Amino acid sequence: MRSIGGVLELVDYMEKYSPNAWMLNYSNPAAIVAEATRRLRPNAKILNICDMPIGIESRMAQIVGLQDRKQMRVRYYGLNHWWSAISRSFRKG
Asked: Is 81 labelled a binding residue?
């Protein structure tokens, strides 16, 4: 929650000094900061990024006995890490 104020301050500086710039927001808590910026600075050019799905995929691969998360096909949506499907190919070779 503390990072919201700092991110908003950066957005304000960007809009003042570099109005064509985009912000890549990689701060935490990612979902909360993303929602705050969406509500409080709705016209800001921000791309909110969260790497949590990669960690979840890696752990899920371990759980189902795979060597690598790339052996799965994952359908992932949304701001709160909602998954609709995980599948695996059983091809030989």
From this structure: yes
Backbone region of residue 17 per phi and psi (left: phi > 0; alpha: psi in -120 to 50; beta: other values) = alpha
User: Given the structure tokens 């991110």, which residue do they identify?
Assistant: 7
Q: What are phi and psi of 25, to 5 degrees?
A: -95, 115
Domain ranges of the chain: 2-48, 52-88
> What is the CB neighbour count within 10 angstroms for residue 46?
19
74: tokens are: 């994952």
pLDDT in tens, 11-32: 999 999 999 999 998 888 887 8
Q: Which amino acid is at 54?
A: I
Provide the whole-model pTM. 0.59
